[in-house]
Design a protein that fits this description.
By secondary structure, the chain is an alpha/beta fold. The chain is about 25% helix and about 25% strand. Strands 1, 2, 3, 4, 5, 6, 7 and 8 form an 8-stranded mixed β-sheet that branches. The radius of gyration is 15 Å and the shape is globular. The relative contact order is 0.25.
């Protein structure tokens, strides 16, 4: 029986270096498929698939917001929560420049630049989540507590 080979991404290297409790799960990536496709292919609740979104404030300072797959981010609420005037999604090329990851494969672990990380507070309540491991079609399954331990995100309540 052959073992499936997963790419070693900066995210996987960080998870291993942090001695994280995780397993990698691969699914056939579909352009614009999003978390709905990932959830269907892995047969898990979309709420447990965590999106890594790269946004920026009005001064073009980048940030990461982690959100449930079946929810959206209220940029107004996020701006208010972090004390800036406005927050908006980064252009894909800008997000790639900040993180080193292609859109659809963005992980909060092992980003090119150290970015502030914000997380929807209800993610921490989940016993187990799936989060991008740095490649399109590859998610890391782990306890939500590992994300909190490794990234030390600021929790916010900005889901809609």
């Amino acid at each position: 029986m052959s073992k499936e080979k997963f790419p070693t991404t900066p995210a996987v290297l960080v998870l291993r270096a942090q001695d994280a409790d995780f397993t990698l799960h691969h699914y056939p990536y579909e352009e614009r498929g999003g978390t709905k496709t990932a959830a269907a292919k892995l047969m898990v609740d979309e709420h447990r698939i965590i999106k890594t979104l790269i946004m920026e404030d009005e001064s073009a300072r980048p940030l990461i917001i982690l959100m449930h797959g079946d929810k959206e981010v209220s940029t107004k609420s996020l701006a208010r929560a972090i004390g800036v005037k406005a927050v908006s999604p980064c252009h894909p090329a800008t997000a790639e420049k900040h993180t080193g990851y292609k859109v659809g494969g963005t992980s909060p672990f092992g980003t090119r630049k150290a970015l502030p990380v914000y997380m929807e507070q209800t993610i921490a309540d989940l016993p187990e989540i799936f989060i991008n491991a740095g490649a399109r079609g590859m998610l890391a399954r782990m306890p939500a507590s590992e994300v909190v331990r490794i990234l030390k995100p600021v929790t916010v309540s900005v889901a809609i």
